[in-house]
């Protein structure tokens, strides 16, 4: 597949859609905490109202960041294919930055942290492997951008075949993004999973809230032989993706008429499609005669030609660009450019094909059945059918684009409670097995289940 062409946008302030003042900026969850806290002006909530399984635990080792002092861990036991989910009420149709944070702290009594999966709604998001960071006494975070397709979103932790001890999580964040951010992506079909976000030429701590109104993390990327510090204040109101103005305080640059070669991201990438955004601003005074004009290539393929870098700044992005292995970005001044190459910041996201969703009526019916049981299976959270390797215990589902629940087998699970009449709304059911439990009450009317074969 040929690469899509990047788009260049010079946006006026009037063309940007800002967040409604009535909407909260998001929900920040301190996993394992029993009381809320305020840290650096941000309100963190305890996690008890968002998750129904797992064990809150306190780390015994000292930490520099308060939210890393607690975790919630989830039982591994013998069943690997179980997920444990946080469910958060969201604004349907809003775009969310979702961030998970992990710091092991030795809670499982092993030297190394477990490896496990994380899931958003019905999509397998990433494998969580914090081993290298933890060996350096560092936390790890994962960030993605997803559309709220319902009134709730779920983020789930799930053991995989590499998991050898209880999975855990330290913090979970849902931040509402402005309408203009990353909006060339079809979020009905895709999500974005952060690979790298760097402020080039910068060597300080993370740039984040309050400098970034959406609390995105901009990591330092210093290359001392080509770093320049700028003293100009850049207005970002017209920038696509609304980056923080601080990322324009520094840049990587080359000499007059010289190309700048940037090995970034600095690690090999799996072969797939990526969203790439690059940010530029000329720090010379607007009265300076001449323009800085660049040709940009990625792995020797033209990304953008004749980019005019002005003092007002510009963002160049590609919605789906193929990358594989190590990546080299080359910035070359054109023959008529007055000045060398320069770049201020960049973002790369992996483009994730969404896994879909179980039919809403089936989800609602199963949730009602769950609520009628005093001790439902621990993993009855999140999407019942997806990802398929992590469907709910005892539930099987149909194939194809419209996902329906087709059997429920809860035999010998020691269940207590009653069978909700909502089971009659699962009209694709072919079989129900409930034997050897302690259920009470009468059997609901199942006449609507026209293809039910086994009861």
TrEMBL record:
This is LRR receptor-like serine/threonine-protein kinase. One of its GO terms (molecular function) is kinase activity. Keywords: Kinase, Leucine-rich repeat, Membrane, Receptor, Repeat, Signal, Transferase, Transmembrane, Transmembrane helix. One of its GO terms (cellular component) is membrane. It holds the Pfam family Malectin_like. The lineage of its organism: Eukaryota, Viridiplantae, Streptophyta, Embryophyta, Tracheophyta. Residues 1-22 form the signal peptide. The keyword Transferase applies. SUPFAM superfamilies: L domain-like. Transmembrane segments: none annotated. It is found in: Membrane. InterPro entries: LRR_dom_sf (IPR032675), LRR_N_plant-typ (IPR013210), Malectin-like_Carb-bd_dom (IPR024788). Residues 362-398 form the Leucine-rich repeat-containing N-terminal plant-type domain. Residues 29-351 form the Malectin-like domain. It is a single-pass membrane protein.
